[in-house]
């Protein structure tokens, strides 16, 4: 089953319905529909992730192992573990991630 967005795109392309009318009929934003019609390779919503899925699993496994053996972890420890992992894997870390502050 296709989503309302997919159906709206099909209505515009195949059915000759206007973007405004398709957006109304399928209850989606006109701007969203127009953007998807103009650019077919729209990625998933949100920002790009810092880690690939496999890397996230490695970090999650580490955190779960710590929880299983009773090591308490704070937000600081999560950031530090993630930063250390990224540094060893890619060396592409902003200095601001190390101390938890954002620098302009």
Automatic annotation (TrEMBL):
<feature type="domain" description="HTH psq-type">
    <location>
        <begin position="4"/>
        <end position="38"/>
    </location>
</feature>
<protein>
    <recommendedName>
        <fullName>HTH psq-type domain-containing protein</fullName>
    </recommendedName>
</protein>
<dbReference type="GO" id="GO:0003677">
    <property type="term" value="F:DNA binding"/>
</dbReference>
<dbReference type="InterPro" id="IPR007889">
    <property type="entry name" value="HTH_Psq"/>
</dbReference>
<dbReference type="InterPro" id="IPR009057">
    <property type="entry name" value="Homeodomain-like_sf"/>
</dbReference>
<dbReference type="GO" id="GO:0005634">
    <property type="term" value="C:nucleus"/>
</dbReference>
<dbReference type="Pfam" id="PF05225">
    <property type="entry name" value="HTH_psq"/>
</dbReference>
């Amino acid at each position: 089953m296709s989503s309302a967005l997919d159906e709206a795109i099909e209505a515009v392309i195949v059915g000759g319905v206007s973007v405004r009318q398709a957006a109304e009929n399928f209850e989606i934003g006109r701007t969203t529909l127009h953007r998807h019609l103009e650019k077919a390779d729209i990625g998933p919503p949100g920002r790009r992730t810092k880690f690939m899925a496999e890397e996230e699993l490695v970090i999650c496994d580490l955190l779960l192992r710590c929880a299983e053996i009773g090591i308490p972890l704070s937000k600081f420890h999560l950031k530090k573990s993630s930063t250390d992992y990224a540094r060893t894997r890619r060396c592409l870390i902003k200095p601001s991630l190390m101390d938890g502050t954002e620098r302009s």
